[in-house]
Amino acid sequence: MSSDYLQFPGWDPVAISLGPLAVHWYGLMYLVGAGFAYWWGNRQADRDPNWSRENWQDLLFWGFIALIVGGRVGYALFYQFPTVVSDPLYLFRFAEGGMSFHGGLIGAITAIVIYAIKTNRSILSVGDFVAPLVPVGLGAGRIGNFINGELWGRVSDVPWAMVFPTGGPLPRHPSQLYQAFAEGLVLFLILWAFSRKPRPVGAVGGLFLVGYGTARMITELFREPDAHLGMLGVFTMGQWLSIPMIIAGAILMTLAYQGRFSASTPPPAKKTKQAQPKKKRGS
Known about the structure:
Layout: E1 6-7, E2 14-18, E3 21-24, H1 25-47, H2 53-79, H3 81-86, H4 101-118, H5 123-130, H6 135-148, E4 162-163, H7 175-195, H8 203-219, H9 237-257
Parallel strand pairs: 1-4
Antiparallel strand pairs: 2-3
Helix pairs in contact: 1-2, 1-6, 2-4, 5-8, 6-7, 7-8, 8-9
């Protein structure tokens, strides 16, 4: 193995310091993802007669909270279960870090289901609206992982392999960047292109599940398995959790194109400009 390998840049994990307040890069990446979803979702709502900006912003607020809580709980249960058994309060120690996409997905789906029921919408149609907005946040989160020098890849001698501060002396795949590219940019472009034309209810959400699960299965081949878990048979934990996503997404798309789903309940009508002043929000 050549000694001419790249060294990790060694960024300060704190992006912004304002007195006692420190904003870390990983947290900032979550805000980038939420900001993009807010902006792009507003654009989609403007073009969709069944949505208003207010509808989308309400869903985004509660969905973001559910994603964070689900991500933390999922990480604790999927990756640190023995710790939770011995110390249940570990679930609530968010400051110690640790997030799971699959847990966050469960949290987000829960928020979508509750929102759809409360607003008399089809659950699958809400999922179709949200799905294209998710990948940019995923990609931003992986860039945050890279800046933090965590979740690095397996040992490699490819020319772009690099040594990470906590990854030992050997160069490794920068697998966080692979994931940012596949789960973020590529998946976003696929979903954006697919959703530009009218699709059967459930098809866009199904494609998201298949696309993310496939991207995760591939990129996990380059990512170092979690040290305390290792390989679980022939797959990593991330791959095992992605297999049900791919299966569920494929079934969902098949049923969608068979016409099994419909927006069975009419969504709320958009508010007109004349109606807006009549509805006030408290401060």
